[in-house]
Specification:
This protein is of the alpha/beta class and 148 residues long. The chain has five helices and six strands, in the order βαββαβαββαα. The chain has helices at residues 12-25, 56-64, 76-84, 102-117, 130-147; strands spanning 2-6, 28-33, 45-49, 70-72, 88-90, 96-97. A six-stranded mixed β-sheet has the order 3-2-1-4-5-6, sandwiched between helices. Strand 5 (88-90) and strand 6 form a beta hairpin. The longest helix has 18 residues, at 130-147. It is globular. It starts with a strand and ends with a helix. The model has no long low-confidence stretch (mean pLDDT 95).
């Protein structure tokens, strides 16, 4: 089992939590982005830079992820794709995507995209909070406790 991170938009505080968790659990962590990502020296942490392009990082993660791996992403279509491959997905705000909730998350995402395309100002996501950080750390630890 390894952890994959859709790292282009992943908050730095979440990356820091992941770096510590990878070292503590001795689980391979790979950050995938279309830009250079700074990582700490560790035999359990690596970064993979992909060419710039629409969904290049997502496509790479989907191609490389294996059943049982964990993917950290806020991208709902990416979460759906990795779930379909038997992997797990965790949002940086601490929500575990599952077969039971991914359809609803995709529907909401598509509705919001449609509203924005028609000119409706839907606002952006809320600012990342300490509660989000704690929720993520808690869910990640629960996941790692189950699989390691």
């Amino acid at each position: 089992m390894q952890i994959w991170v859709d790292a282009d938009a992943c908050p730095n505080v979440i990356k820091d939590i992941l770096f510590r968790a990878a070292e503590r659990s001795q689980v391979m962590l790979t950050l995938v982005a279309n830009q250079s990502i700074r990582i700490p020296p560790s035999r359990f942490v690596r970064s993979l830079q992909v060419p710039k392009g629409f969904d290049a990082a997502d496509d790479t993660i989907v191609r490389m992820v294996q059943a049982g791996d964990l993917v950290v992403t806020a991208d709902v279509p990416l979460a759906a794709a990795v779930l379909a491959k038997g992997a797990h997905a965790l949002d940086p705000r601490g929500e575990i995507y599952t077969g039971d909730n991914i359809g609803e998350r995709l529907a909401v995402r598509n509705l919001m995209d449609g509203l924005r395309a028609s000119g409706v100002d839907t606002g952006g996501p809320q600012a990342f909070s300490n509660a989000d950080r704690r929720a993520f750390a808690s869910q990640l630890q629960r996941f790692l406790d189950r699989v390691t």
